[in-house]
Each structure stands twice: as C-alpha cells, then as structure tokens.
Amino acid sequence: MAWSIADVARMSGVTSRTLRHYDEIGLLPPAWIGSNGHRYYEEADLLRLQQILLMRELDVGLREIRAVLESQVDQVAVLREHHQQLLAERDRLETLARTVGRTIAELEEGKDNNDMVKINRPENLFEGFEPSSPQIDAEVRDRWPQAWEQARPAVEAMTAEDTEQYQREVTAQMIRMAEFMAAGTPVADPAVQAEVDAQYQFVCRYWTPNAAAYKGMGQRFVDDPQFRANFDKIADGLADYQRDAMVCYADARLS
User: Fold this and answer.
1) Roughly what angle, to the nearest 10 degrees, separates helices 238-249 and 211-223?
2) Around Cβ 175, how many Cβ atoms within 10 Å?
3) pTM, to two decimals
4) Comparing 52-61, 87-96, 121-130, 154-163, which segment has the lowest mean pLDDT?
5) How far is Cα 169 from Cα 184, in angstroms, rounded to an integer?
6) Where are the domains of the chain?
7) Is pLDDT above 50 for 118?
8) pLDDT tens digits for 81-102?
9) Coiled-coil intervals in this record (predicted)?
C-alpha cells in the first residue's frame, strides 16, 4: 500500500513542505513519484519517518540523522536506544510535574491561611529543569548545518549567568525596535538599520548568517507561533517589523 504526501502529512503532523525538503536533501525520498508529479510513500518510508521524528524529538540534527539512517546499524538496536532516551525524558517530565504540583500546593496553602507564601525548600522550585540556552532556530540547524556547528560550542559553553545576560540583551533589543515601530520609523531608516546591525553583530557571537539565513531567521519570527508570541508581548506587529528590517539589512549589507 502507498500513501500520498498529503496522507503522510496528515498522519504524521509533518508538513508537506518539510517532507519535500527531506526528499531534496536525500533524507526521506518517496517510494515513487506518480505521473501527476505527486510523491507516494510505502510502509518502509513511514517507518523511516518515524525514526527521523524520534531523533528530532531528541534534538538530533538532520545531518546526524541521515548518517545514522545510512549506516548499517541494526534498526531494532537504534530504536531501543531511542526508547531509553525517551524513557529518560519521560522521567524528567514527571519530575517537573511533581515540582509544579508541589509549588501549587504550597501556594494554595499560603492563600488559604491568608499568610505570605513560604516555600519550604526553595531549591525544590527548580527540580527537573534543564539548564536553559539561547534558542538557535531549528530551521537554521537543518538548512544551514555549518552555521549550527559553528554556534553549538558557544551555546554549550554558556553558564546560567551568560544565559540570563543573553535574555536581557535580546529583550532590550526588542524594546528598542518596538520604540522605532511605535514612532512610525521606516525600517530602512539609518537609525533602525543601525539597531539591526547591532543585533546582527550580537547574533555573530554564536554564528555568522549570510543574507539568506538572516532573512530566514527573520521570517521564522513571523511564522513560528512561539517566536511571534514573544514579540507580541512587547508590541503587536513587532515580529513583522523586525522581519522587514532584517530583510532590508540583508539586502543592503549581506548580499
């Protein structure tokens, strides 16, 4: 039995665009292409897609995934390893759930007693959390793996203090851009472009995007619901304004 690309997209939750990208990079070619030009997938391809999605859930890059799939490693052994990693992640999430539940109970107890909330063991608030790091765009990692490899050492070397400082700087940059937007300043204005240049130099601490990558980064701010929400917390429409300013900068300075 074969399934069309639309069927696979519906079953897996992976967009047709992503499936076509996987085909283009040789990660998941279809079993065959019909006379209508549509891609069709068979059961072996669905199993391969499952492995890809499992490794993506474990934050493995597409280049590494392809290397694993193209090796002659026993498929069951690979799945068993993924299973163990997923079980470990399940245990971590269960710990997080207990942490949040304990905090809710302590907050409700203080509220019921009309007392100031007292956390018995403050360190318990953070049990199960993983050290945070700057979010390097997943699409950048997949489409520009060299940039991802360039960024990874700097990101992994960051301390908690570095991460906090990073987040403060990013927020400050977003606020400055929001002020330009509120004033009606065109994105091509030298003052706006100077701010974008400062942002670009900030990004270059971790990786050096070319024009296409920088435009892609700006577009993701608009397309990705989580990124857009972060911008909207500062000002409605800021994601689009930021994207447009980055496109202008890339065309003028990076092309």
Assistant:
1) 170
2) 12
3) 0.45
4) 121-130
5) 23
6) 2-70, 75-126, 138-254
7) no
8) 777 877 877 877 777 677 667 6
9) none
* Spatial distance between the Cα atoms of 209 and 67, rounded to a whole number of angstroms: 25
Alpha-helix residue ranges (DSSP H) falling in 113-237: 138-143, 145-156, 160-182, 190-203, 211-223, 225-234
The secondary structure element, H or E, covering residue 249 is helix 238-249
Report the CATH number of the 2-70 domain.
1.10.1660.10
d(CA 179, CA 126): 35
**Would you state the CATH architecture of domain 138-254?**
Orthogonal Bundle (1.10)
User: What 3-state class would DSSP assign to 107?
Assistant: helix
Question: Between the CA atoms of 130, 131, 133 and 136, what dihedral angle is there, to the nearest 10 degrees?
Answer: -30
Return the residue matching tokens 């490693």. Answer: 73
- Alpha-carbon distances, residue 80 vs 75, 83, 190, 252 (angstroms): 9, 5, 56, 50
